[in-house]
Amino acid sequence: MANGLRRVLLVEDSPHDIEMTLDALAEYRISNLTDIARDGKEALDYLYRRGRFASRPEGNPVVILLDIKLPKIDGIEVLRIIRSDELLRLIPVVILSSSREEKDLASGYELGANAYVVKPVDFHGFVEAVKTSGLFWAIFNEPPPRSLA
User: Fold this and answer.
1) pLDDT in tens, 40-85
2) Do 26 and 51 meet the contact criterion of CB atoms below 8 Å apart?
């Protein structure tokens, strides 16, 4: 992988937020290592290498950037499934959500989210939030060895 970076999984249904996230990650050359799932079912298909992701390379992403409000399966349920699976539970999960609801925050942390980042409304704030969290998790963080298996 380029520069020793591992893949990032972005789980987001908003084309606008996908584009802004990829733009933010591009500054650190992370965007070309980002796979996208547009709903909770696709996220699980990616992680379990099913459906259109059946032929993706083996190994887990170094981090999952997860929206909460997703079609098909919401982000909280995706997180619940990830944390209950022996092969996936050590993957860092950063919730990127526009929700400031206390129940969403509490659920995210109770289920083992590594961070909860509220999406700023303005473009500059959003880009900075994604750059900061993406840079840390994709470049600086040392994940447990089994999390990348």
Assistant:
1) 999 999 999 999 999 998 889 988 999 999 999 999 999 999 999 9
2) no
User: Which DSSP letter does residue 140 get?
Assistant: I
What CATH architecture is 27-140? 3-Layer(aba) Sandwich (3.40)
Strand order in the sheet with 34-37: 34-37, 8-11, 63-66, 93-97, 115-118
Q: How many CA atoms lie within 13 A of 91 on its CB side?
A: 30
Cα(100)–Cα(62) distance, rounded to whole angstroms?
26
Number of other residues whose CB lies within 10 A of the CB of residue 143: 16
Per domain, the residue ranges of the chain are: 27-140
CA–CA dist 109, 47 (Å, integer):
21
